[in-house]
Amino acid sequence: MQHRAALVHGLTVVVSSMALLLTVLVGASVSAGAASKPTGTPLVIGTIETVTGSSQCSNCRVTAATDTLNAWVKQVNAAGGIGGHPVQLVALNDDSDPGQAQTDLAKLQSDNVLAIVGEDASVTEPGWGATITKDGLPVIGGTAYSTNWITNPLFYPGTVTPLSAVWGIMYAASKAVKQPKLGSVLCNSASVCLAAQPLEVTAAKSLHLPIVYSGTVSPTATDYTPQCLAMKAAGANVIAPEGVNQELLVKDCARQGYHPVVVTGDLQPIPNQVHSDPQLAGLVGPAGSFVPYQGFPALKGYFTMLKKYAPQYLPGGTSYNGTYWMDASTNAYVAAEAFQKAIENARVPAGTAVTRADLIKGLSMFKDETLGGITPPLSYGDGTKPNPGEPCFYLYKTANNKQVFEPIPSNKMTYYCEPQSDLP
Question: All domains of the chain, ordered by start, with CATH?
Answer without folding.
Answer: 43-160+293-390 (3.40.50.2300), 163-287+414-422 (3.40.50.2300)
